[in-house]
Amino acid sequence: MRSIKRLLIVAGTIAALTALAPVASAGSPLGDIHLQKICPTFETTATCMVIIADAGPLPVGTVAAYSGPLFAPVFSTAVVLTTPNGDTATGHCTLIWRPELSGADGFGTCVFVSGTGALAGFHANLTITDHPDTLVTNWDGTYWFGN
């Protein structure tokens, strides 16, 4: 019962964050982000690295550092992205691992609301698909730059 309540709270939070995300400013059209990151030492370092970046402002080599708490079946944490050039973006990710809902894969969202350097004004709404068998996570969604 407690896990169902937790799942409902997390699902509600995801829905609220998605609905309340700011719209793109007129000066910055929406762009697409499609990337894959790998997290081979996630349980000890809570970091991942982008290995494929098909679209968007986050290049290969960008590191995602999560601040926790790190636990399953629900993972909800602040995250800081740092590009190889030192630009940063700050956001929050929520990921759920529930085999009865998604098989072996995890699913969730990341929302980014600020950045520094080349990522100043960075905003993004991303869908997460986590594949624990391969240690690869896909992020797909939209981004824009604004206030």
Describe the 3D structure.
There is one protein chain. The chain is globular and about 40 Å long. Strands 1-2-3-4-5-6-7-8 form an 8-stranded antiparallel barrel. The protein has 3 helices and 8 strands. The chain is an alpha+beta fold and 147 residues long.
Layout of helices and strands:
Blueprint: H1 2-20, E1 31-38, H2 42-45, E2 47-55, E3 63-66, E4 74-82, E5 88-96, H3 99-102, E6 106-116, E7 122-131, E8 136-145
Antiparallel strand pairs: 1-2, 1-8, 2-3, 3-4, 4-5, 5-6, 6-7, 7-8
Q: Which sheet architecture does the biggest sheet show?
A: 8 strands, antiparallel, barrel
How far from one another are the termini?
Answer: 41 Å
- How many structural domains can be distinguished in the coordinates? 1
- Compute the average pLDDT: 81
In short:
The chain has 147 residues and is of the alpha+beta class.
Can you tag this structure with a few keywords?
alpha+beta; 8-stranded antiparallel beta barrel; globular; 147 residues
